[in-house]
């Protein structure tokens, strides 16, 4: 499969599990100052997918029900996630609940293994992914840049991977660009979505320039002084980064290379009349 279509002036559409997604920017729906700010940010970003935590919103009882209705009213594809789940059993039960609630078999799968870093439990993640795929789910696993874990998730039936850039909410950007490049090159035909750790539009553009297919954001937009303007900034950065990747970035050189050739350049004697 050719990953780059150089005949297009704009980034070509993203296809996930056979569905064409309108934007390469995915937005989370938590931590906004108000529901209206969240709705406005999603519209400003032209987000193709929004994610929502089923466990967190269910804990809010009636407020959570109203929030779910607001999410559905956005008119974009909703992808529930299993945020907060610590075991495969919890994650599977939450995914099944989400399928009933949102009438979708898409799920962002999280199985958290460490409370300080929110790093996924890769063993539990693979176990839960395999069970959900068998149950008919289209699984989007939140994982690390680990190549072996990626292979196991693909063997389990996942068709998309969501590696972190850095721990959730840190805003540190691409903490291990070497490993992320390796992942991108090793799984050249697999859609890879950067998930977690992106804090600035420049970091999102860097990920897209490396060839990643999309970026999922939440905190960087939701916690901004102006979430709507920040959403626009990220949307522009992601489009620019992807366009640059498809156009073909110049190679990095160790030595200078003149943009104007020296050979054949006329020299003028300024002392002569």
Describe this structure in words.
The protein is built from ten helices and ten strands. Helix 1 (35-45) packs parallel to helix 10 (227-247) and helix 4 (88-102) crosses helix 5. Mean pLDDT is 88; it is low at 1-8. It has helices at residues 35-45, 54-58, 62-72, 88-102, 122-134, 147-155, 177-186, 201-209, 219-222, 227-247; strands spanning 14-16, 19-21, 25-28, 49-53, 77-81, 106-109, 138-143, 162-163, 193-195, 214-217. The protein is 40% helix and 14% strand. It has 273 residues and is an alpha/beta fold. The protein has a five-stranded parallel β-sheet. The protein has a three-stranded parallel β-sheet with strand order 6-7-8. Strand 3 (25-28), helix 1 (35-45) and strand 4 (49-53) form a beta-alpha-beta unit.
